[in-house]
Amino acid sequence: MLAKRIIPCLDIKDGRTVKGVNFVDLRDAGDPVELAEIYSKEGADELVFLDISATEQKRKTLAELVYRIAEKVNIPFTVGGGISSIEDVDILLQNGADKVSINSSAVKNPQLINDLAAKFGSQCIVVAIDAKQIDGEWIVHLVGGKVPTERKLFEWAKEVEERGAGEILFTSMDHDGTKGGFANEALARLSTELNIPIIASGGAGNLQHFTDTFTLGKADAALAASVFHFKEIGITELKEKLKENGIPVRL
């Protein structure tokens, strides 16, 4: 079995790392360059950097900040926020990103997934899906969770895979920042129905939640932010606990 991955997420706004609850009430969580270096040294498997206001503010991801982070880390590094063209991806990869994450732009222009996968390879393209339950259906949302769409999670995820995405980063908006555990039922269905890796996001609060998302949720990777940023869970401690629980991880 492939090793399960632990991925700290740096949500960036105005050059600082921030964290909220259910996508609102953001608070400062530190300098992204310093945090990235710490996580790389502590044994994180990958990093995700999301410029959460890039799409909303109609500006491009902070390529200079990407470059500064890439200089400090020696693990795969995914960058998202405001990416809508081959040119955007080119700039980020030149500045040190290993993969890119697209979200709103993919829903608005699904052909973008095909184009990016053809140009850069599927292994480079992560499609992020933010969804929450409305009347029992998982509905996809855009622009940092502010705009509901007519897309349903499982149908959209399948289309994303067919168009050439290499991974899906699924964030449950209902669970985000609540520290009540991941959306394991939805994750398990995604993992069962799709053949590409699924990254779980939204809800990490304790060590057991990670074990649960790898066993009950069948996730390939678990992404978290505040529990790492505010030193509630250490990455080394987490991986040792996962290993004790029979979860394959890289130590």
TrEMBL record:
Annotated keywords: Amino-acid biosynthesis, Cytoplasm, Histidine biosynthesis, Lyase
Pathway of action: Amino-acid biosynthesis; L-histidine biosynthesis; L-histidine from 5-phospho-alpha-D-ribose 1-diphosphate: step 5/9
Record localization: Cytoplasm
Catalytic activity: 5-[(5-phospho-1-deoxy-D-ribulos-1-ylimino)methylamino]-1-(5-phospho-beta-D-ribosyl)imidazole-4-carboxamide + L-glutamine = D-erythro-1-(imidazol-4-yl)glycerol 3-phosphate + 5-amino-1-(5-phospho-beta-D-ribosyl)imidazole-4-carboxamide + L-glutamate + H(+)
InterPro entries: Aldolase_TIM, His_biosynth, HisF, IGPS_HisA/HisF, RibuloseP-bd_barrel
Family indicated by similarity: Belongs to the HisA/HisF family.
NCBIfam families found in the cross-reference section: hisF
Main function: IGPS catalyzes the conversion of PRFAR and glutamine to IGP, AICAR and glutamate. The HisF subunit catalyzes the cyclization activity that produces IGP and AICAR from PRFAR using the ammonia provided by the HisH subunit.
Summary of subunit composition and partner proteins: Heterodimer of HisH and HisF.
HAMAP family: HisF
Protein name in UniProt: Imidazole glycerol phosphate synthase subunit HisF
Biological source species: Pricia antarctica
Primary gene name: hisF
